Amino acid sequence: MADMIIATEKTFDKDVKESGEMYLETILRLQEGGVPVRSVDIAEAMNFSKPSVSRAVKILLEKNYISLDKHKNILLTETGRAIATAVFKRHSVLTKFFLSLGVTPETAENDACRIEHIISDETFEKLCEKFDTPTV
Ligand SMILES: [Zn+2]
Q: For residue 70, how far is its CA from the centre of ligand 1 (angstroms)?
């Protein structure tokens, strides 16, 4: 898992790292719903405009984190899925941690979803020792 997080640091340039991770995490979650994921679904889920989602999709395609099938549905590549899974793990562990402090579920989720992109590996590993969840 630590290796995966290091890979995340390397594969995204600083500026796009956070938003790239957010997109991949969103795509992973949408995919788990079992329905094909389209740009419009991402725009809706993230509350972003369609043009900004199109721009992000283009970057993610260039970086080979996602691919499109013949119906233009968005699929995660192996690398994209690895990053999304690592982010989602940070999301679940951080959420559990905040809930354990008595934070309300909504705030716990929202804070986790921001901190998951910037937390250091060192801190995250310590959190995992206490709040690890079974891997997805
Ligand atoms: Zn999140």
A: 29
